[in-house]
C-alpha cells in the first residue's frame, strides 16, 4: 500500500502541494489526473522518494520512503523525461537493471523486447516513443511491487498504448503490483484505473473509485403521457436535466435499481437507461463541486 498523508511542498515561496492525501491499494491502478502545473510530477517524485515533502508523510507498506533503500528496491519510477545511460544498448540496459533489482526476470525482458520488436541498438538512437517502450520493458521485467509512472502513455501510438495497458493490467492481477499513473487525459484512464484522483493547483479536489462512481450515477431518457405529474422527480438528486420535445434526459445520482423501479412505476411511454462515460460523470460531479472539468483536464 502506498499512502500519502497530507503532503505539502513549497518551491521557493510558492505552495506547490497543499495537504495532498490518497492511497494506492495493493493490486490496483490509481490514476492521478490534472492539468499542466497541477503538481502531479511533484507528488510522484515525493512518493518515489526523490524529493522530500515539507509536511505530511509518505508510507509504503507502513514505512517512510525517503532514503529507504530496501523500499526503493521494490519501486520503479518512470519519469516523464526518460534517462538512459549514454551509449548503452537495449541488452546492456537490461544488465544494468539486473544488477539493481533483486526481482529482475531476464526471460521476461527478452520476451518483452521481442514482443515490442525492439532491436538491440543503442537506446539513445531510438525515437522517443521507442525509448518509452524500452522503459516499459525494463520496468516490467524488474517486477516491482510499486510502479510509479509520470505520463507514460504520452507520445505512444494507439496500438502500443493498448499493448502496454494490457501488460500493466496483467501484472496488477497476477503479481498484485500497485500502479500510480499520471495523465492529462481522463478518457485514457477510463478502462485502466480502479481509482482516480484529480489534482488542481496543488490540491486533491476529487477522489473516486471508478466502479462506485459508475454505479452511483445514472443517465435516464424518458417520456411521460401528456399532462402526467412529474412530482416524483423531486425525490431524486438530479445532477443535470434537459428536455427536447416530450423526451426528458436526466443525469441522476442514485442506485440503478432504485431509479428503474421509480420510473417503471410511472409507466412511461419511453424509458431508457443510457450508458454514461467517465468523462460525463466527472463533468456533472465536478460541476456540482464548482469546477468546470473542461478547464482542468483535456
Ligand atoms: N524544482 C522546482 N523548482 C521550482 N518550482 C518547481 C519545481 N518543480 C516544480 N515546480 C513548480 O511546481 C508546480 C507543479 O509542477 P509539477 O511539475 O509537479 O506539475 P505537473 O502537474 O506534473 O505538470 P505537467 O502536467 O505540466 O507535467 C509548477 O508550478 C512548477 O513550476
UniProtKB/TrEMBL annotation:
<dbReference type="GO" id="GO:0016887">
    <property type="term" value="F:ATP hydrolysis activity"/>
</dbReference>
<keyword id="KW-0813">Transport</keyword>
<keyword id="KW-0067">ATP-binding</keyword>
<dbReference type="InterPro" id="IPR050763">
    <property type="entry name" value="ABC_transporter_ATP-binding"/>
</dbReference>
<dbReference type="InterPro" id="IPR003593">
    <property type="entry name" value="AAA+_ATPase"/>
</dbReference>
<dbReference type="GO" id="GO:0005524">
    <property type="term" value="F:ATP binding"/>
</dbReference>
<dbReference type="InterPro" id="IPR003439">
    <property type="entry name" value="ABC_transporter-like_ATP-bd"/>
</dbReference>
<feature type="domain" description="ABC transporter">
    <location>
        <begin position="2"/>
        <end position="226"/>
    </location>
</feature>
<dbReference type="InterPro" id="IPR027417">
    <property type="entry name" value="P-loop_NTPase"/>
</dbReference>
<keyword id="KW-0547">Nucleotide-binding</keyword>
<dbReference type="Pfam" id="PF00005">
    <property type="entry name" value="ABC_tran"/>
</dbReference>
<protein>
    <submittedName>
        <fullName>ABC-2 type transport system ATP-binding protein</fullName>
    </submittedName>
</protein>
<comment type="similarity">
    <text>Belongs to the ABC transporter superfamily.</text>
</comment>
